[in-house]
UniProtKB/TrEMBL annotation:
<dbReference type="GO" id="GO:0008124">
    <property type="term" value="F:4-alpha-hydroxytetrahydrobiopterin dehydratase activity"/>
</dbReference>
<dbReference type="InterPro" id="IPR001533">
    <property type="entry name" value="Pterin_deHydtase"/>
</dbReference>
<dbReference type="InterPro" id="IPR036428">
    <property type="entry name" value="PCD_sf"/>
</dbReference>
<dbReference type="Pfam" id="PF01329">
    <property type="entry name" value="Pterin_4a"/>
</dbReference>
<comment type="similarity">
    <text>Belongs to the pterin-4-alpha-carbinolamine dehydratase family.</text>
</comment>
<keyword id="KW-0456">Lyase</keyword>
<protein>
    <recommendedName>
        <fullName>Putative pterin-4-alpha-carbinolamine dehydratase</fullName>
        <ecNumber>4.2.1.96</ecNumber>
    </recommendedName>
</protein>
<dbReference type="GO" id="GO:0006729">
    <property type="term" value="P:tetrahydrobiopterin biosynthetic process"/>
</dbReference>
Length: 101
């Protein structure tokens, strides 16, 4: 399935409804830093997010140190942001909510 890049106004609209996700300086990605109680919580979040990523066929760039997971989402095939990025972002927010920080 081919996803089309979203217009900037639609990106802004999506971001306004989400908590702590920021548009990258490049304008083609969104990022958020997730904080957990410890490494086990962070890694279990990553496991759940990885399964969602496989299901959606849409994969994150991320960086983990101990209890922190920095996530950047972009649709490489489209050269920018698509509905897939927001779909995965929302799944990640849900997974994080189930693990108190
Ligand atoms: C063939 C496969 O559907 C594509 O390579 C998918 C896989 N996961 C992906 N993940 C992300 N973040 N961007 C993509 O463009 C992308 N493309």
């Amino acid at each position: 399935m081919k996803y089309e890049r979203l217009e900037r106004a639609v990106v802004d609209q999506n971001l306004a409804a989400m908590s702590e996700w920021k548009l990258g300086a490049d304008g083609i990605s969104i990022s958020k830093s997730f904080k957990f109680r410890n490494f086990v919580e962070a890694f279990s979040f990553m496991t759940e997010a990885a399964l969602a990523a496989e299901k959606f066929d849409h994969h994150p760039e991320w960086f983990n140190v101990y209890s922190r997971v920095d996530v950047t989402l972009s649709t490489h095939d489209a050269g920018g942001l698509t509905e897939q990025d927001f779909r995965l972002a929302k799944a990640m927010d849900k997974a994080a909510t189930r693990r108190a920080s």
